[in-house]
Amino acid sequence: MRPDWKSSMASMGVSFNAPLDAGGLLVGEKVTLEFELSAVKTA
């Protein structure tokens, strides 16, 4: 199973951000979280 979840930083109440030396920001406005899950049934 491999679900994903998309959200914006503002909707999660996160306002932290840091400028990078090469330009741009450390954390973008949109966030995608991906989870890879596996399970094994034991006897």
Please specify the SSE layout and strand pairing:
Layout: E1 4-8, E2 30-34
Antiparallel strand pairs: 1-2
Q: Sheet with the most strands?
A: 2 strands, antiparallel
Q: Total strand count, please?
A: 2
How much helix is in the residues? under 10%
Q: What is the count of helical runs?
A: 0
Coarse morphology:
elongated
Specify the structural class.
Answer: mainly beta
Task: Describe the overall structure.
The protein is mainly beta and 43 residues long. The chain has a domain at 1-14 and 28-38. Helix content is 0%, strand content 23%. The protein has strands spanning 4-8, 30-34. It has a two-stranded antiparallel ribbon. The chain starts with a strand and ends in a 9-residue tail after the last strand. The mean pLDDT is 76.
In short:
By secondary structure, the protein is an all-beta fold. It has strands at residues 4-8, 30-34. It has a domain at 1-14 and 28-38.
Task: Give the key terms.
43 residues, mainly beta, 0% helix
